Amino acid sequence: MNAAATMLADASVVAKRNLIKIKRVPDLLVFTTLSPIMFVLLFAYVFGGAIDPTGGGAGYREFLMAGIFAQTVIFGATNTGAGLAEDVKKGIIERFRSLPMTPSAVLTGRTLSDVVNNVIVLVVMSLTGLLVGWRIHTSFLEALAGFLVLLVFAYAFSWVMAWVGLLVPSPEVVNNASFVVIFPLTFLANTFVPLDTLPGPLRVFAEWNPVSAVTQAARELFGNTDAVASTMTASQAWPLQNPVLYTLIWSVAVVAVFGPLAGRQYKRAASR
After folding, report:
1. d(CA 34, CA 41)
2. pLDDT tens digit string along 105-120?
3. Domains identified in the chain, total number
4. 20 to 30 A Cα–Cα from 36, which one of 76, 167, 179, 186?
5. 66, 74 Cβ separation under 8 angstroms
6. How many C-beta neighbours within 10 Å does residue 269 have?
7. In which domain, by residue range, is 61 found?
């Protein structure tokens, strides 16, 4: 068996271990899905009528869902960091390092298992979206591409969280540190409001924010770009004119930078 096949086999074992943990501690999945459901309901019915008064906010609910999807999968990447921080704290990383397995398999398995977790969350959120009036207006393949773009971006971001999880001393620090960064990134974007509502400098930041690009990519692939069209003007910024390409460029760049950083930090983690 060659090195790549060995690494994938080891990574699948680690991923299975993480998925079994979700099965044995279902509270993890329950609270991961409850938060986005609450966001959908609150934004759809509390803010929807104010932002899009015509039709009782029906257009805003379609505009909203891609933003909620993007925010949720990005926050879901924090599970990678928290899980690794917990493994370091409990000495499990030391045990992994003592086993005859490929070192990169631990990080690859951890990030892949969180992709599965994000798939489950997206399914639950999609059903919630359908209940509040969200609809997909494109073909099955385009809709599938929309979900894949979201998962690819979330997978790339999980490598950032993997590095953070191996760097900081506890899962609590991971959650607090990630919230400080992710919260403004997801709100200073086109996730919940049209960019027209933002003042000049913030609008420029939002136009080049990769979260805006992944949101716009999903919105286009789901066919939700006509939602609340009367309240927004299409941005001419290159990232939002080419959102899928911009998202993929960011995803590759993030993995290229933080993959090696996380790998080096993994080697140091057992010496804490």
Report:
1. 11
2. 888 988 988 898 899 8
3. 1
4. 167
5. no
6. 21
7. 3-269
